[in-house]
């Protein structure tokens, strides 16, 4: 069990978080879950970055507090991680605010439904035929049942 | 009398100082300051706020041009806050950095004025101007940074600013495109951050010059290659690298066309610049080259085929830009000077051409069929389209031909199986490109069918911008010889890794693992 040091566990945890978050980003289809997956992946990346400065049994890098010659952890990754965390939070907040706008516009955060909306809107704006049911490739998974809010909005917008 | 002295004598342009080297930070700081002052200023005086953006950008452009003329020959380093590298953060200013940095305020100015009102019905909101300045500041910083983490920060700032601009139309479609772009971009950032962490773990530094110094011993291994792959995919999101370019068609179709022009033209090339620096300084192994070649080839293939199938003008341009950037990545896979020279040629050509074409798409934003007979109502725009299309395809003697030729010759000289495949793919893609661009050109000049609505006319301003860029293109055609010498000089300076290290560290530092 020589390999299973404290540091190894931390590294495994960080990489695991990144993998988990990335998988979530690829596989989820609900926008809010995507934002959460992003938060997890970012936490993993930040942890990994701060781990690169980790030294076993070292103290916090503050001058004048510890005995000269004491091993300190590398302060540079810590500084960088602060920046990365702030950026990450900002981007996530922006994402959530855009999600709010999307929900108000379409009444759903299901990415498959939204992509369909996007295609239709783009085709309508450009005045071209949308990739409708006739042209869609066979084998596509059926859409989930209509969401009440969308159906209601569609009914209201129809003459 | 040098051009610089002449500029100083023009009273409108003369700043009360001739810039010193350290004042290059003003090119980043001024737009940043302007961005934050924009909103408070708009409360006080709307007129002042309206003038602030162009003034700041013009000042920043003047500063950078004056610096290029004064110190442009030799690279120099500005240590931010006076802290020496490698602990301090530096701006590394060589001719390539200055070229891209100067292009940022100029192109932002070119696409500054808005073509359409926003959701609130105004065409002059201070918010949007602030975001635009933020984009300019971040992009300038990205071009000048000589430090991996600073590059990451400026890249993120560029990304956030572009999210704001992409959502400008405030339609549901624009928000969906924005959030999908945002999530992909954020995933890219996470991957890039992991790549940075690995590089730091292997080399113990984030200063690009020091990484270059340590790279042969520390990064030429599988872990280093993994770091490069992560950095490439991370920064590749903005550079429209296959496979992280799914945002491209949606975003360019939903964002205002002038914003698309800025993003597709210049901002994507700044991400390419980051990749170029990484390839030159740190990752010049065969593994990295194979990766670039493979992803570039796939990008060319998918981009051009999708453009061939596109039915509307903005998305055709978007897919074609994916294809063109694929060619840039293929060029970057060529080793050393050849690769950098070819990549710069293709990238700069694409900046000029795609900016102009997206500018025309401000009004030509509908289906390709709606453009039938547009030459009658908009003859100048149609002729300009044909000019840009010819250069994009690579018809001699236009610059696009020479740029593509550089890549093809480089690939042929390399002569490996993969390189020859890429060569064949580029040739095939050129045929596809010619097909769809000529299809549009023919449609422009054909007679409109009876009863069809009149094709839209590009605005006077967009045609003026396109004409200006068309003149640049024609000028480049005439001066292709001195131009290639000039670009070759830049490429030679960029690929001189030893000189880069010597510039950043005049006294050699002790190598600590």
Description of the structure:
- The complex is a heterodimer of chains A (159) and B (513).
- Helices cover 64% and strands 0% of the residues of chain A.
- Chain A is mostly helical and 159 residues long.
- Chain A folds into 2 domains: 1-59 and 66-106, Helix Hairpins (Orthogonal Bundle), CATH 1.10.287.3510; 111-131 and 143-159, no CATH class.
- The longest helix of chain A has 32 residues, at 75-106.
- Helices cover 73% and strands 2% of the residues of chain B.
- Chain B has helices at residues 3-9, 26-44, 46-71, 95-110, 126-144, 148-166, 172-203, 208-218, 222-236, 247-254, 257-281, 286-309, 313-332, 336-360, 374-377, 379-393, 399-414, 417-445, 460-478, 480-495, 497-504, and strands at residues 76-79, 90-93.
- A two-stranded antiparallel ribbon of chain B has the order 1-2.
- In chain B, helix 6 runs antiparallel to helix 7, helix 9 (222-236) packs antiparallel against helix 11 (257-281) and helix 16 (379-393) packs antiparallel against helix 18.
- The longest helix of chain B has 32 residues, at 172-203.
- At the A-B interface, helix 1, helix 2, helix 3 and helix 4 of A face helix 6, helix 7, helix 10 and helix 13 of B.
Compact overview of the structure:
The complex is a heterodimer of chains A (159) and B (513). Chain A has 159 residues and is mainly alpha-helical.
Show the helix and strand layout.
The complex is a heterodimer of chains A (159) and B (513).
Chain A: H1 6-27, H2 31-51, H3 75-106, H4 111-126, H5 148-157
Chain B: H1 3-9, H2 26-44, H3 46-71, E1 76-79, E2 90-93, H4 95-110, H5 126-144, H6 148-166, H7 172-203, H8 208-218, H9 222-236, H10 247-254, H11 257-281, H12 286-309, H13 313-332, H14 336-360, H15 374-377, H16 379-393, H17 399-414, H18 417-445, H19 460-478, H20 480-495, H21 497-504
Antiparallel strand pairs in B: 1-2
Helix pairs in contact in B: 2-3, 2-5, 3-4, 3-5, 4-5, 4-11, 5-6, 6-7, 6-11, 7-9, 7-10, 8-11, 8-21, 9-11, 9-12, 10-11, 10-13, 11-13, 11-14, 12-13, 12-18, 13-14, 13-18, 14-16, 14-17, 14-19, 14-20, 16-18, 16-19, 17-18
